[in-house]
Amino acid sequence: MDVPGFGVYVHVPFCARRCDYCDFATWTDRGHLVGRYLAGVRTEVRAAVEAGTLRSVTSVFVGGGTPSLVPADDLMAVLAEVPLADGAEVTVECNPDDVTEDLLTRYRAGGVNRLSFGVQSMVGEVLVAIGRTHGPDAVERAVAAARATGFTTFNLDLIYGGAGESIDDWRRSLEGALALDPPHVSAYALTVEPGTPLAAHPERHPDDDDQASKYAVADELLGAAGLSWYEISNWSKPGHECRQNLLTWAGGEYLGLGCAAHSHVDGRRWWNLRTPERYLAAVEAGRPPEAAGERLDEAERRREGLMLALRTNGGVPVGALAPDDLAGPLASLLDVQGDRAVLTREGRMLANEVAVRLRLPEDQ
Q1: Which domains are assigned to the chain?
Q2: Which secondary-structure segment (H or E) carries 264?
Q3: What is the C-alpha to C-alpha distance for residues 284 and 98, in angstroms, rounded to an integer?
């Protein structure tokens, strides 16, 4: 998948409440740092521009945390520092509870042209079970506000596999989301991350077979509604694919801004200091906020590129898999389309099984 361009990820680490499955770098008790933090990110942007690290940007994704929790004008002041290319995609993640027409009008004035709503479910009791504070009605209001303020593309972000969620619940959730006619839907299987409250309760952990069944339901319903998969967990109408997603899965370059943000430029990856306090101490002292980094050799980069490409509807070169694999154990997991091998629906559920068999030409 050839997706030219350069991306930026802006991390906003503030939340009103932390979900019990979340292991992201987010905090619920750092509200007093919001203004100082966003000023610090502006400083980091300016330093990157001056150093030549930050160039013409084709996509920006503001995530978190909860970006919609911070003052819109302060967040837009950060985006105003980013050198955008003509036609750049600029996405902000939003909690449905935070969305108002006034907020989205400020976003539009600041150059935001895409939204991603953290919906998770359209079934009230499921939202309560996974610790979300909004209800389906808040999602409906948020989508209406997006359309009223001129947004033509947005994403509904769903999650499946939580304790107590039945197949029927998941189907209702998808149908509720599709009733809003979204141009893009992301659907992620709930994962158990070490150290989270969810990890401490095995009785609430998701079941692999249950999640596989729910993935099949999602692919069936989303496909029937005109949304095609372009990456294992992402479906969209034609022309509404998330450019930042495409860049990431193509192994493209991006700069991460803010605490804990990751970057990938010129074959090198690095990540910023994790806590807001340590990040701000570095930025305000004029030091790079980098915590650590690594450089992959050419073979590692190519192998990683194959693994990323495998997750997309562009697939991988047929030569990246042994003929015996294509005709044998992987036959039901791959669809050979000319010189490319693309995951079938079953293959998408077992992508890791295929990924471990990928090989570079020199491995053949």
Answers
A1: 6-249 (3.20.20.70), 298-363 (1.10.10)
A2: strand 262-265
A3: 30
Per residue in 149-196, pLDDT tens? 999 999 999 999 988 899 999 999 999 999 999 999 999 999 888 988
CA dist 51 → 44, 273, 279 (Å): 11, 19, 19
Q: Which pLDDT score is estimated for 364?
A: 44
DSSP at 258:
S
Alpha helices by DSSP H, the chain: 34-51, 72-79, 101-109, 124-129, 136-148, 167-178, 208-224, 243-249, 276-284, 298-310, 323-327, 345-349, 351-355
Phi, psi angles (nearest 5°) of residue 226: 90, 10
| Rounded-to-integer distance, Cα 137 and Cα 213, Å | 27
Burial annotation 55-67 (CB, 10 A radius, 16+ → b, else e): eebbbbbbbbbbb
Q: Mean pLDDT throughout 281-305?
A: 95
- pLDDT value at position 4? 66
CA dist 281 and 259 (Å) reads 11
How many whole angstroms separate alpha carbon 164 and alpha carbon 289?
Answer: 42
Q: Which two tokens stand for residue 174?
A: 């998808």
Inter-CA distances, 242 with 90, 158, 293, 342, Å: 10, 15, 27, 20
Whole-angstrom distance, CA of residue 215 vs CA of residue 235: 12
Who's near 38: CB < 8 A, 6+ residues apart? 70, 74, 75, 77, 78
CA–CA separation, 329 vs 323, rounded Å? 11
